[in-house]
Amino acid sequence: MAEKKLTPALENYLVTIYKLSKENGVARVSEVARIKNVSYPSVTTSVKKLVDLGYVEHERYGFIKLTRKGKRLAITIYNGELRVKYFFMYVIGFPEQRAQQIAELMIYGLDSGTRKQLRRFYALMIDFDETKTEKLINFLKEQREKLGVKNIPKEALRLKIRLKEDD
């Protein structure tokens, strides 16, 4: 039998349940289905998997309730989603709806190490000014050292030159 694990799709359901619980105090299968634009059976199947993994509690026709483990993970993922959204809004300059779409595409399925690196980069960039220049330089040096890279490869730099072509 295949090992059950939390997939990016299940993470998305978990965060949706968290958002509904935060807004309304509770979450229902019907609300999750409406928000995600999926069928009730799709939600029920996913909720059963989340129950099996210990992230939610749910009785047939009842509310969906996050366990402590589920709430903790949902908050972590949701905060990551917000970081990516705000990065694309306030650093890259995208409108909120587009930034939200990108955040939802990017955040699910990331491991804790990746989330940690994104948090560190976000902390530097979200309110970047000249006082953080040295911290950004050190961050970039640290990442390159981890990779064993002294100089950026020409292939990567060539993509910088192609910026006009991409427009």
Write up what this structure looks like.
- The longest helix has 23 residues.
- The N and C termini lie far apart (49 Å).
- Strands 1-2 form a two-stranded antiparallel ribbon.
- The protein has 9 helices and 2 strands.
- The chain is mainly alpha-helical and 167 residues long.
SSE topology:
Layout lengths: L7 H17 L4 H8 L3 H13 L3 E3 L5 E3 L1 H23 L5 H12 L4 H14 L7 H15 L6 H8 L1 H4 L1
Antiparallel strand pairs: 1-2
Helix pairs in contact: 1-2, 1-4, 2-3, 4-5, 4-6
Quick structural gist:
With 167 residues, this protein is mainly α. Helix content is 68%, strand content 4%.
Give structural attributes.
167 residues; mainly alpha; two-stranded antiparallel ribbon; 4% strand
